[in-house]
Design a protein that fits this description.
Blueprint: H1 5-8, E1 18-21, E2 32-35, H2 43-52, E3 58-62, H3 71-83, E4 88-91, H4 103-112, E5 115-118, H5 128-145, H6 150-158, H7 167-178, E6 181-185, E7 191-195, H8 202-211, E8 219-227, E9 230-239, H9 247-263, H10 273-282, H11 285-295, E10 304-310, H12 317-331, E11 335-340, E12 343-348, H13 356-363, E13 368-374, H14 379-399, H15 408-422, H16 425-432, H17 442-454, H18 459-466, H19 470-484, H20 493-508
Parallel strand pairs: 2-3, 3-4, 4-5
Antiparallel strand pairs: 1-5, 6-7, 6-9, 8-9, 10-12, 10-13, 11-12
Length: about 500
């Protein structure tokens, strides 16, 4: 057993709380509670999350004071927390700091499956400390009474987003459960994964492995982990407080690690390109560096990502991978390529020997939507770019149906259009008001849409697309200039019109 969100809601300190969204998270386990007052998604917060690894089992308490008037930031922080596997958010002092809960916030919590729990509106009589104390007491009581934890941890892993189902995550959950440090190494004592308890002991842990000597006060235990058809690995369990763990606790630790390796990642120790791709996208930094050493690849040099997303009905992953690998080999000196989830992904050093348009043309027959994202300097940026592609690929195709491949700018434009639509009719009306001079003319709207979005202001290409003579297109563009009272290809009018037309294309799709 473990403590679920639904059980916490029965505590006296939460009996007046109300779940307004994300109800599918009610049966997820909670193993800790934290206060999140600085809630605006920034690079600093991203680094904080990366280092502290709030994953899979935590519930956050906040009043969103610093983003009380920013609905976009409220939505973004929920997405952010959900992507890190957070279980839920308890929102205090609604009606005092956050004056009113926007429907968009509720929609995001439902969409991302994160429980949004409201304390009674307009009341200052509820304290953070009451929930923190009661929740932790319930968790500690459950751990005292329920000594079997391996099944709970495996269940927690299955409930996490796919990109968090990693060995680092599993070892972090084990660390938080039994307050131990873990090292996973290959047969040559090369480090694969490392988590420390307390986290401040991380440097001592790495130093001990490097010097083959840990502080004498630490209790250490090593066990062999088999990995399918591959060579074995070795798991070191370390208690920095010096007390040995019972045989039963050690047995369960070994069981859960062994099961994880065999079920989710039977080739965890196989250093192949598939592992490199997964490691980069999941952001496992220690393992990533180790893979780089084995492949003799400068991981920091991998600054471009190609993604092939199969169109509906197209599932020839092996064919796509082989073709993409061959083309990457011909055009880049450094690359790794393999399948990830339902896509085929390649990372390169960005130094393309040919033209990316030619690469896209060679890939065209695979029945895939093609993305080329450049200048990704960190694994965090890579993961965010990958998630953006998944969120925006349909909108990108609707806005730019003729593109052979999509760039980071195309994805960002599509995301902005989607965000505009998600904010409701007022937002849509505000974006499309720039089209009022031609709102009664479908011919003018179609001409402008093709001229700006498909042909980037090229008269000849627009004529070809419309199957018209270039003089006819010139006349239509002159007419558009007259209707708008300005050159439609002049900035910033061009930007406003392109965005409005992009929003309409997504709506029509």
């Amino acid at each position: 057993m473990s403590v679920h969100v639904s059980q916490l809601l029965k505590l006296s300190c939460l009996k007046d709380a109300k779940v307004v969204a994300g109800k599918r998270a009610l049966e997820r386990s909670v193993t800790s509670v934290s206060v999140l007052e600085y809630a605006e998604p920034t690079a600093l917060l991203d680094e904080f999350f990366e280092k502290n690894r709030f994953i899979g089992s935590e519930i956050a308490i906040t009043c969103w004071y610093n983003i009380r008037d920013d609905v976009d930031a409220q939505c973004n922080i929920l997405k952010y927390l959900a992507n890190y596997g957070e279980v839920g958010v308890i929102l205090y002092y609604l009606g005092i700091f956050v004056k009113k809960l926007d429907p968009r916030v509720v929609e995001v919590a439902d969409e991302y499956g994160i429980a949004l729990i409201l304390m009674p509106e307009g009341s200052m009589n509820y304290r953070y400390s009451e929930v923190i104390t009661a929740v932790m007491e319930a968790i500690i009581k459950d751990r005292t009474e329920q000594t079997l934890f391996s099944g709970d941890l495996l269940t927690q892993i299955t409930q996490l987003p796919e990109h968090l189902r990693t060995m680092d995550t599993l070892l972090s959950l084990l660390r938080d459960r039994i307050h131990a440090s873990f090292l996973l190494t290959d047969q040559n004592n090369k480090l694969l994964n490392s988590v420390a308890y307390p986290q401040s002991a991380d440097a001592l842990l790495a130093q001990g492995l490097e010097n083959h000597a840990f502080p004498s006060a630490w209790w250490k235990y090593q066990v062999r982990i088999t990995a399918g058809k591959g060579p074995a690995m070795y798991l070191q369990i370390i208690n920095t407080e010096g007390e040995p763990f019972s045989k039963e606790v050690v047995r369960q630790i070994v069981e859960v690690v062994q099961l994880f390796v065999n079920i989710w990642n039977p080739q965890h120790n196989q250093f192949i390109s598939a592992e490199m791709v997964r490691t980069i996208l999941r952001d496992e930094p220690i393992k990533m560096r180790r893979l780089g050493e084995l492949f003799h690849i400068d991981v920091a040099a991998l600054q471009e990502m190609w993604v092939l997303c199969p169109l509906e009905g197209e599932k020839e992953h092996e064919k796509n991978k082989n073709r993409l690998s061959l083309i990457m080999k011909e055009n880049y000196s450094t690359y790794v390529c393999d399948d990830y989830e339902e896509q085929t992904v390649a990372f390169t050093d960005g130094n393309c020997l040919g033209a990316r348009e030619e690469i896209a043309r060679e890939l065209e027959g695979l029945g895939c939507q093609i993305f080329s994202i450049q200048h990704t300097l960190t694994t965090t940026e890579v993961r965010q770019a990958y998630l953006c592609i998944q969120e925006s690929k349909e909108a990108s195709r609707a806005i730019f149906p003729d593109k052979k491949f999509y760039t980071a700018e195309d994805i960002a434009f599509a995301q902005d259009c989607l965000e505009c639509i998600k904010q409701g009719q007022d937002s849509i009306d505000k974006a499309t008001r720039y089209l009022r001079p031609i709102e009664q003319s479908e011919e003018s709207k179609r001409t402008l849409s093709i001229f700006l979005l498909d042909c980037q202001g090229n008269i000849a290409k627009t004529a070809e697309k419309l199957n018209l003579h270039t003089n006819s297109v010139k006349y239509r563009v002159q007419k558009l200039n007259s209707q708008f009272g300005s050159d439609v290809f002049r900035f910033p009018l061009q930007a406003f019109l392109a965005f409005a037309l992009g929003v309409l294309r997504v709506l029509e799709s």
